[in-house]
Each structure stands twice: as C-alpha cells, then as structure tokens.
Amino acid sequence: MACQWALEILRFLSKPPMRQSSHPKKRHRILWGFLYVGIFIAVFTLSAAIKLVSNPLGDDFSVVWNDSVGTVYADIPYGDGDANKFDLYVPADRSRQHYGLVVYLHSGGFTSGDKADDARTLHWLCAQGYVAAGINYTLFSEQHPGANILTQSLEIKRAWTRWSPRRPSWATP
How far is the C-alpha of 22 from the C-alpha of 163, rounded, in Å? Predict the structure, then answer.
C-alpha cells in the first residue's frame, strides 16, 4: 500500500510540466523531499512495529525468577526522603566468600521512573552472581526543585556512612 502510494507520487512528479517552468530543478527537489519523507515514515513505522512485537534483548538476558535464583529484600529505606528506598537482590548461592555489588539507578533523568521498572535487569544481574541494588530516589518536581544527581549522591553517602558498621576513615558523615 505504501509502496503503491510512493510510486503514484513518483509518476505524478515525473510527468512533463504543462507549462515551461523557470526553475526546472524545483520539481526534482520536491521529488527528493517526498522520497525522504516517505522513507522516514516507512522506517519509523517498521521500527515501532518491531519494538512492539519482539523483545530486543531476546532470551539472553531473561531469568525465570524464583527462590532458587535469589531473594529480594524490598523497600529498604536509606535516607530521609519518602522515595529513598532500594530493593536488594541477593543470590541464593552462598558458596562465595565475596560478592560483587551493582548499584542500579533507574532511568528517567531524575524526573520520572521507578526501580520496579528495571526488575528484569536486576533479576538477571543477581542470577549472574552479583548482589544488585535497585534504587529509588527523590525525583525533580515543584516540591523538590533541588533534586539532582549531586543531592542524591550526597543522600546515599550520608545513609551509607550512618549505617555502615565498617566504614573507611575517609567516609565521615
């Protein structure tokens, strides 16, 4: 359907003009403009359809989550703000002496989003043997105009130094 539409436009634009034009290249510019717009619309529609139908990451980063993979400790508070909570994903495998920690801040540019939106990624990290922490933070809004990456980093540092039993000497509250 879209191809037939594009062919009709090309046929129309390739017909000789009824009267002599003072700008013979103008018709070609219009033709190329329609062609660019048509290609853009086709590619945009195709990419949107692919994203709706398929999982771009496939099954490589998917995990069937259950107690044999790990445990989730949800909504652990880390600061004074109402939104300052995190979920901790701990692997079920307790054979290691040390585990790597991945602290995952959800996307949203400090204006939107939630840690629950990235649970699949955190499940996968935990299944790979990492302890994963998905963090919520105070979002920028009219009520919180100072919320940004610096203030959030300072809140996390204050919370960690307040509750960490073995903090290094440089991490003073």
Answer: 79
Chain-centre distance for alpha carbon 127: 20
3-state secondary structure of 29: helix
DSSP 136: -
Between CA 120 and CA 158 the distance in angstroms is: 29
CB 105 within 8 A of CB 74: no
What's the CA gap between 75 and 60, in Å, rounded? 28
Confirm if 101 and 133 have CB atoms less than 8 A apart.
yes
> What is the rounded CA–CA span in Å between residue 21 and residue 18?
9
Q: Which tens digit of pLDDT belongs to each residue from 28-70?
A: 788 888 889 999 999 999 988 887 777 656 667 778 888 889 9
Amino acid at 18: M
Output the pTM of the full model: 0.59
129: Cβ contacts below 8 Å, ≥ 6 apart: 91, 93, 96, 99, 100
